[in-house]
Write a structure and sequence with these properties.
By secondary structure, the chain is of the alpha+beta class. The strands form three sheets. The chain has a seven-stranded antiparallel sheet with strand order 7-8-9-10-17-14-13, with no helix packed on it. The chain has a six-stranded antiparallel sheet with strand order 6-5-11-16-15-12. A hairpin with a 2-residue loop joins β1 and β2. α7 runs antiparallel to α8. The protein starts with a helix and ends with a helix.
Length: about 450
């Protein structure tokens, strides 16, 4: 038993160093390997694999070096093109600004005369207004409308068939500026629809004295091929009255400290905003003025509504959730139908004062229209001398009225000619007598001349 145990122990001790050859059915016996030999072969295989791996990156790196070399010419060429393009762009821009005419369209400018100054705002297509300040102060000009928003709250809106289009530099509206010694003109173009020219002319209320007012006029041209209804709104975010309890005053309401809405008339013909010293007066009725249909004084966000008439609340405070004490003035003109290529004009005055209009009683009195020319006698067809038979018969449709106005030929005057003049006056009176006043007066003068010719025939 002991002998058997000793033999088993020897076998276990010698087993790691013994390798038995495996035999397949008919194959020759394979060579036996020890454990140490196996380890050595494995180490050699690993070394060979590592050599292959280290050799591969060298080949790929050489290929990578060759590839950039091939595309390097193309990349350099592209970079040269980009550099050339960048170099060309500043030159083009520089040449554009070198042109003295294009400078007016791209650079802000100001026009001043007397106590009035107008400054352009190219970013928004609007203007800022200033009044002369105390010469002892650092800045000789004081703003009378909000300028912190670069004139965004001082603007014009054109209504086309009831739809509002705000006239400012944008994708829909293009604008350009012109200026002279005493005027600024902004031209707004709505593509294939309308053209609006806003003219600001610095003038004087009196024949003698400094310039102290601006005559503002808007001409609207229908550029479309069909008729449209046009209306206009002008907005000013005034700031003088915001330093006082009364932001505005009118002839019928001396203290306007909350929302107020009224229709101008010969007696209610102006709006004043003042800080107690400097003041603005918007004249809304007069010989050179197209009276607006309505005037509103309200908070800025109410004014900016498309049709704010329906949201006004008489007596509501100028303070709102969006702004504190921020009052604005808006002028509204009624819609007017324009045929293609037809034009209409709206106008009003902005007066400036450094004494709160204390010495301007003439400006603040009710408007009295000038006496109209009255025809001395009625034209009766029976009283007109008959045309001689030898004279050629004049066809009513062949009368050239533009020529007749310049060269009044007594031989061509007949009842049809006179009737056409009267019809023209009636038509102008029915459309808009304030806008067409000059044309009406010219026709009335012509009728008086016709009457003199008719009297000479008697």
């Amino acid at each position: 038993m002991k002998r058997m145990f000793v033999l088993l122990l020897c076998f276990l001790l010698l087993a790691p160093d013994l390798v038995f050859a495996k035999k397949s059915g008919k194959s020759a016996p394979k060579k036996t390997e020890t454990v140490s030999e196996k380890k050595a072969s494995r180490a050699e295989k690993k070394a060979a694999k590592s050599k292959k791996k280290s050799a591969k990156p060298k080949k790929s790196s050489s290929r990578a070096e060759k590839k950039p070399a091939k595309s390097k010419k193309g990349a350099v060429a592209k970079n040269v093109e980009r550099v050339e393009k960048k170099a060309e762009t500043p030159k083009a821009a520089q040449s554009r600004f070198d042109d003295p005419l294009s400078k007016k369209a791209f650079e802000n400018f100001s026009v001043s005369r007397g106590i009035v100054k107008i400054q352009s705002v190219m970013e928004n297509g609007s203007v800022l207004l200033f009044i002369e300040n105390d010469s002892r102060k650092k800045d000789p000009w004081m703003p009378v409308v909000e300028q912190r928003d670069l004139g965004e709250s001082n603007y014009i809106s054109l209504f086309v068939d009831g739809v509002e289009c705000r006239l400012e530099r944008s994708g829909k509206v293009a604008c350009s500026f012109e200026s002279g010694s005493d005027f600024v003109t902004i031209t707004y173009k709505i593509k294939k629809l309308a053209e609006v020219k806003a003219n600001y002319v610095i003038s004087s209320r009196n024949l003698v004295g400094d310039a102290d007012c601006i005559l503002v006029s808007y001409s609207i041209l229908n550029c479309d091929k069909k008729k449209h209804d046009f209306a206009l709104k002008a907005v000013y975010n005034t700031i003088l009255g915001e330093s006082r309890a009364a932001h505005f005053k009118t002839p019928s309401n001396a203290v306007v400290a909350s929302e107020y809405f009224f229709q101008p008339s010969p007696s209610d013909n102006w709006v004043i905003t003042s800080d107690g010293m400097r003041a603005l007066c918007f004249s809304l009725y007069g010989d050179e003025i197209t009276p607006p249909a309505s005037v509103a004084m309200a908070n800025k966000n109410i004014i900016e509504a498309s049709r704010p008439e329906s949201v006004f609340v008489d007596g509501r405070s100028f303070t709102s959730v969006l702004a504190y004490n921020n009052s604005s003035l808006a002028l509204f003109w009624e819609k007017f139908s324009l045929l293609p290529e037809s034009e209409i004009l709206y106008s009003y005055k902005i007066n400036f004062s450094k004494s709160d209009f204390q010495n301007d009683a003439e400006l603040l009195k009710p408007y009295e229209p000038k006496t109209e020319v009255v025809m001395e006698e009625e034209i009766v067809v029976q009283e007109i001398a008959p045309v001689p038979s030898s004279a050629p018969k004049i066809n009513d449709d062949q009368i050239d009225f533009e020529t007749e106005r310049k060269y009044l030929d007594p031989e061509k005057i007949n009842s049809q000619y006179v009737q056409r003049l009267i019809d023209q006056i009636n038509s102008l009176e029915q459309t808009n007598p304030a806008v067409n006043r000059e044309k009406i007066q010219a026709l009335q003068v012509e009728i008086n001349e016709v009457l003199e010719v008719l009297r000479s025939r008697r």
